[in-house]
Amino acid sequence: MLTDLALGGRWPDVARDMRRLQEEMNRTFGGFRFAVPAEYPPVNVWAGADGAIITAEIPGVAPDQIDITVHQDTVTLRGKREPAAPGKDATVHREERTVGAFARTLVLPFRVDSEKASARFERGVLILELPRPPADKPRQIKINPA
Amino acid sequence: MTDNTSGAKAQTETVSQAPTFLPAADIYETNDAVVMLLEMPGADPQSLNVTLDKRTLTITASSKPFAPQGYTLVHAEYEDGNYERAFTLSELVDGDRIDAEFKDGVLRLTLPKATPSPAKKINVRAA
User: Fold this and answer.
1) Any idea where the domains of chain B sit in the sequence?
2) Most CB atoms within 10 A, among B7, B24, B41, B125?
3) Chain B: residue whose CA lies nearest to A39
């Protein structure tokens, strides 16, 4: 499941995968208190003939607070998770949600048509559609009969 | 406030293949209410279920699988699945006035504390 196919042909980072696995275990078995800070936000990358779709789980952040930049083949997500302000007289029982600024950069194996790139935010999940420019798309070449 | 998820997990056996996650929670208490914030990114609002049975508060939801046509998943760091978490409330809560709001993948529950009934004095009949 943890393949790095889409990340620009870089070598898979074993340490990062280990951290990711640990986070996944924590998420499943509930050991949030021992969670290791991994790269945030977690992303899924979908690849197709027309480009790629990147989805990221960013719950609790207002859509206008997420800054997305696309430059050639590089996509950067930036934002800040604000702490819940319970007020002065409130007693805090649990604070498992992490807060603070985040930034994540992904390198795709193709250039992105930044004019046509689009983003939407649905229930805490950011969906980025990153099409390839038509000129960059693989073209089928026919063999001429001799 | 006790978190009793591990107990609930062992008893249930899900039919679907989707994994079940424990949503991260922030809980704080003000003078008149207990406020809970649960992170459930991608959860379908239709599937959200909040139940209060005596003092056990259970929250369940499931996320719709995201699968765009013509695309294949090449890199995955998170999975779609179900969210489930149960809490035992230490405080008496007014079940009729619980407010739940789901916004940007975070469920905000406001549980107003039940007003304690005034202490009753019982007269003792002397025989």
Assistant:
1) 2-64+79-112
2) B41
3) B77
* Cβ pair B19, A28 in contact under 8 A: yes
Verify that A46 and A5 share a domain, yes or no. no
Does residue A90 sit within a domain? no
A76 and A44 in one domain?
Answer: yes
Is residue B35 within 8 angstroms of chain A, CB to CB? yes
**What residue has token string 């702490």?**
A83
For residues A110 and A53, state if they share a domain.
yes
**Could you give the number of structural domains in chain A?**
2
Please identify, in words, the CATH class of the domain defined by B2-64+79-112: mainly beta
- Cα separation, A28 vs B5, in Å, equals 11
Range of the domain at A51: 40-84+99-135
Q: What is the pLDDT of residue A19?
A: 77
Virtual torsion, Cα A23, A27, A33, A34, nearest 10 deg: -30
pLDDT of the residue at B110: 93
- Tens of pLDDT, residue by residue over A116-129, are 999 999 999 999 99
Mean pLDDT of the B62-79 span: 89
Interface contact B7, partner A, CB < 8 A? no
ipTM over 0.90: no
Residues A33 and A105 in one domain: no
Interface with chain B: mutation pick from A125, A129, A132, highest number of B CBs within 10 Å: A125
Beta carbons of B27 and A94 less than 8 Å apart: yes
Per residue in A36-87, pLDDT (tens digit) is: 556 889 999 999 988 999 999 999 999 989 999 999 899 999 999 988 777 7
